[in-house]
């Protein structure tokens, strides 16, 4: 979270969103995310399906990951890109809406004071 906050500060992006987004892929959600990404990449590449158990260890990376990396990385790329686009559009719409709401309230307050 600290790294995300510092990078958000350096890149001048929304700090709370950067910090909160670090909780999306935590150890509890990593296994389902990796499995979904692998299944997506497998279906797009039409590779032979390999059964595997996700394990957060160096042994898993050196023995299992090397056999599933192509479909997994394709799935990661596609889902990551989709999440980034959806998140960007949603936050942009939310931001524009909040700014429009703020300006509307400010305009209304100004008109109320003039009356």
What is the strand and helix layout of this fold?
Layout: H1 2-11, H2 15-21, H3 27-45, H4 58-114
Helix pairs in contact: 1-2, 3-4
Describe the fold and architecture.
With 115 residues, the protein is mostly helical. It has one domain. The chain has helices spanning 2-11, 15-21, 27-45, 58-114. Helix 1 (2-11) runs antiparallel to helix 2 (15-21) and helix 3 crosses helix 4 (58-114). The longest helix is centred in the C-terminal third of the chain and has 57 residues, at 58-114. The radius of gyration is 21 Å and the shape is elongated. The termini are far apart. The mean pLDDT is 88.
Short description:
With 115 residues, this protein is mostly helical.
How many helical elements?
4
Low-confidence stretches: none
Overall number of structural domains:
1
Q: What is the global morphology? A: elongated
**Cα-atom Rg, whole angstroms?**
21 Å
Mean pLDDT, all residues: 88
Q: What is the rounded distance between the termini?
A: 49 Å
What class, by secondary structure content?
Answer: mainly alpha
Helical content band: over 70%
Report the portion of residues in β strands.
Answer: under 5%
Q: Tell me about the largest β-sheet.
A: none
Q: Output the helix-strand order.
A: HHHH
What's the β-strand tally?
A: 0
From the structure above, extract its key features.
single chain, 115 residues, mainly alpha
